[in-house]
Amino acid sequence: MKILIVVGSKRKNGNSHTVGKKLRDYLSSFKQEVDLITIDDYNIDGCTGCEGCSSTNKCVISDGMQKLYPKIDKADVLVLISPTYYYNLSSDMKKFIERLYCYQVFDSKNRHIWTSVNDLNGRKIGATISICEQESENDIGFTTEGMALPLRDLGYDVICKQSYLNMFEKNALHNDSHAQLKIEKCGEMILNSIRAKKAL
User: What is the value of pTM for the model shown?
Assistant: First the structure.
């Protein structure tokens, strides 16, 4: 199965990226096919609400997101990692999630009823990781649910929702053995979910 890890931080050597790399390395050690991408490497805009995707489930905005859709389509597992900015996810991650709107399928007569492309074709596996410099879980704010709830509605079974606190200094993760074990725990949950799906 293919795994896509998406990082919504502009700090290329920051803790969000470090978590993503360590998770990628852990999953790769179990011979999983893992792709790690950084949203900032792609020139993308937020959703404009144009509804150009309504009949095809294909976004009509021509920008860097068009390079990401094939990766998303092929991935059986989608992991979202975002730093916490003002109790919420980063603007890069927000834009990325908005552009997944094209995968929603609305009832033609009642837009209060909807499903997703993944629900129609087979639900996938999702995971979220929130990074925060503060000490309290309350300071994560909406970051975790801001990623997990859209994934749920997009047809992903979110099997892992993690948050990492006290993560501001660039090397904070390297000095936190508990956090490193958490990364492996998330990896184990992803692997177990993959095995369960293969067994069906």
Answer: 0.94
